[in-house]
Amino acid sequence: MSQNGIVLVASVSILRDDKVLMIKENKPNAVHKWNFPGGRIEYGEDILHSARREVKEETGLDVKLIAAAGVYHFISRTKNQVILFHFIGEVTGGSFKLEEDEISDSKWIKISDLVTFENEDLREPNVIKQIIDNLLKENVHSMSVYHEQLIQ
C-alpha cells in the first residue's frame, strides 16, 4: 500500500527445522534478487492478513505467524519510502508452488548460512542483513503487540 508517499510492506521468514525459506524475485525492479516472501499491504488490509496472503501468493504455503522480527524503515532502490513489518512464520498447510511470473527460484537455507549472501544478490541488502542479524540473535517479539484489524 502506498499512502502519502509511504509504501507499507509485510514479509515473513518461514522457518522449518533450522532453515528459512528464501525466494529469488523476478520483478522488473528486483531481477534475480533474493528476499523473504512478502509484498505490499493493500489499502484497508490488515497487516497480519497481508503477510499470510503474500506468502500464499508467492509460495502456495499457508503459515501461522508466531513472532514479529521488527519494523524497518528505509528508502528503497526505487526511491520509495518503505515501512516493512517482518514476521516469523511456520508452515501449517498448502502445497509448495512458486508464483512463476514473479519468483524464479527458492531455497531453504540454514539461518546461520544467511550471512553468506552478497549484498548485490539481495533485494534490499541493508534491511535484509538487519533481519538476518535479528534472526541469528533470536531477537524477535511476541505477536501480542499486533491486533487483527478492528475497522470494517
Describe this structure in words.
This is NUDIX domain-containing protein. With 152 residues, this protein is of the alpha+beta class. Helix content is 16%, strand content 45%. It has 2 helices and 8 strands. Strands 1, 2, 3, 4, 5, 6, 7 and 8 form an 8-stranded mixed β-sheet that branches. The longest helix has 13 residues, at 47-59. It is globular and about 35 Å long. It starts with a strand and ends in a 16-residue tail after the last helix. 29% of the residues are buried. The mean pLDDT is 91.
List keywords for this structure.
2 helices; eight-stranded mixed β-sheet; alpha+beta; Nudix_hydrolase; NUDIX_hydrolase_dom; globular; 152 residues; single chain; hydrolase activity; 8 strands; Nucleoside Triphosphate Pyrophosphohydrolase
Name given to the CATH homologous superfamily: Nucleoside Triphosphate Pyrophosphohydrolase
Biggest sheet statistics: 8 strands, mixed
Structural class comes to: alpha+beta
Annotated CATH topology: Nucleoside Triphosphate Pyrophosphohydrolase
CATH-level-2 architecture: Alpha-Beta Complex
Write down how many β-strands occur, each being a DSSP E stretch of 2 or more residues: 8
Work out the radius of gyration.
Answer: 14 Å
Task: Give the class-level CATH name.
Answer: Alpha Beta
Q: Tell me the fraction of residues in β-strands, as a range.
A: 35-45%
Mean pLDDT over the residues: 91
* Spatial shape: globular
Low-confidence stretches: none
Count of spatially separate domains: 1
Distance between the termini: 17 Å
Helix content: 10-25%
Number of helices: 2
- The ordered H/E elements are EEEEEHEEEH
